[in-house]
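Annex B. Sample input.
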Amino acid sequence: MNTNEENKISKFDALKWLLVVVLLVAGIVANSYFASYATPLRAIGWLVLMALTALIAYQTAGGKRTWGFLQDAHIELRKVVWPTRSETVQTTLVVIGMVALAALFLWGIDSILLWLVGLLSGQRG
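Annex B, continued. Sample output.
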C-alpha cells in the first residue's frame, strides 16, 4: 500500500473515531435531557447507541485489531481448566482458615506488645 492510501485510511479512521466520540457525548447529553423518561426506554436508547458506535469503531483499523484480540482471548479462555465445585470450596476453606490463623497470630503479637509498652511506660502496675 502506498503512503497516499495509508493517509486516506488513517484520515477516515480519525473521522470515524471522532464520530464515535460525538455519538457518545450526544448520548450522555440526551440521557440527561430525557431524564424524566422511563429508565428502560433510555436503556434501550443506550443499547442502540452502543451497537451503532461499536459498528462504526469496528470499521477502523484499531477496531479490527481489538476485535481480533477479543476473539483470541475467547479462544484462550476456552483452554482454561476450571476447578470443580469441591476444589473451589476446599481452597476457599483453606484460605479462610489461614486468614483466621494469621489474624489470631497478629492479635496475639499486638496484645503482647501492648502489654510490654504499658509495662515499660508505667501504666500497668
